[in-house]
C-alpha cells in the first residue's frame, strides 16, 4: 500500500478516549470491533493500533468510564465487551466540549494568521 494511502494512527492519542466513548454510545463492542468502527467511520483515515487501544481501554475501566464483561465474538472467540457507563457519558460531553473549543481556536488561528 503506498504511504499516502496508509491509515493514520489516531493522533493525538488524547483523542482516542473521546472516539472510543462516541463509538460505544450506540452499544457495547469488543476491542477489535471498536478499532474497526473508528477506522470505518473515519472513512478509513484513522487506525487504532492494539498497543494503544487496550491500554486506553484499561485506563477508561479504572476511571469508571466503561465497564467490561467477557463474551463470545462473532468469530467464536472469547473477548471482552466494553460499554459506556453514566460516568462515561458525562466524560464524553466534557471531551466533546473541549474538542469543539480547541478546534475553533485552531480554525481562528488558521483563518487570521
Automatic annotation (TrEMBL):
Top-level division of the source organism's lineage: Bacteria
Residue ranges of domain Transcription regulator PadR N-terminal in the record: 20-94
Database matches in Pfam families: PadR
PANTHER family on file: PADR-FAMILY TRANSCRIPTIONAL REGULATOR, TRANSCRIPTIONAL REGULATOR RV3488
Protein's recorded name: PadR family transcriptional regulator
Source organism (scientific name): Edaphobacter dinghuensis
Amino acid at each position: 500500500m503506498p504511504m499516502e494511502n496508509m491509515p493514520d494512527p489516531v493522533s493525538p492519542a488524547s483523542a482516542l478516549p473521546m472516539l472510543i466513548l462516541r463509538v460505544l454510545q450506540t452499544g457495547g463492542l469488543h476491542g477489535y470491533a471498536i478499532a474497526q468502527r473508528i477506522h470505518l467511520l473515519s472513512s478509513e483515515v484513522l487506525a487504532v493500533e492494539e498497543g494503544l487501544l487496550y491500554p486506553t481501554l484499561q485506563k477508561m475501566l479504572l476511571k469508571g468510564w466503561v465497564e467490561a464483561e467477557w463474551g463470545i465474538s462473532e468469530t467464536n472467540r472469547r473477548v471482552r465487551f466494553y460499554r459506556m457507563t453514566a460516568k462515561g457519558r458525562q466524560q464524553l460531553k466534557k471531551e466533546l466540549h473541549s474538542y469543539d473549543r480547541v478546534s475553533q481556536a485552531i480554525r481562528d488561528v488558521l483563518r487570521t494568521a
